[in-house]
Design a protein that fits this description.
With 173 residues, the protein is mainly α. 71% of the residues lie in helices and 0% in strands. Helix 6 packs antiparallel against helix 7. The relative contact order is 0.10.
Length: 173
Amino acid sequence: MVDLKFAERLKHDLTAIKPVKTHEQVANEIHMAPSALSNLKTGKRSATRDVKKSLVRALGSLKLAMSAARSEFGVLSFLDDKKRRLDSPFTTSLIQYKEEQERIQAQHDYDLAICKQPQERTAGDVAAIKKYFKEYFEEIASEETDVQAKAIDAGLDDELQAMINQFNRQYGG
C-alpha cells in the first residue's frame, strides 16, 4: 500500500533541497533510478523501509524521518494541517498551548472517569477516557511541530537531528 503522506513529504523535501541537490543527485546517492524516485514522490510506488531510511539520510529531513516512522512503526508524527501556518514559531506555540489546555481539561474528565470501577462507568465516562488519549496525541504532535519550527527559526535546524540523537543515546528507550 502506498503511503501518500510519506510521498507528499518526500515531494516537499525534494523541492526544498533542489537549490542544493537535484533529484538525479539524490537518486544516485541512494542508488536508485531517477524515475523510481519520481514514482515514490508522486505516490505511484511505495518505498521500502530501507529506501525510506536512505532518503531520510540523503535529504537530512527530520519531518521525513518522522513520517517514515509513522508509516513503518505507527508512532506519532508532527502536525500537518494545511489550514494552519505551521512554519511560524509564533503560530506553533499558540497551537501547542491550545492543545495542552485541551489535554489538561480532558485529563480532569479522564481522572474522574478512570477512578470508577469499569462496570460502573457510563457511556460519557468511556467517551472521556477515549477523548483524553486523542487530546494527548494532538498535544504531542503539536509539541513536535513547535520544536521543529523554533529550531528552524533559531537557525538550529541542521543541528536538531544531532540533538535528538544525543537525547536518544542518553535517555531514549
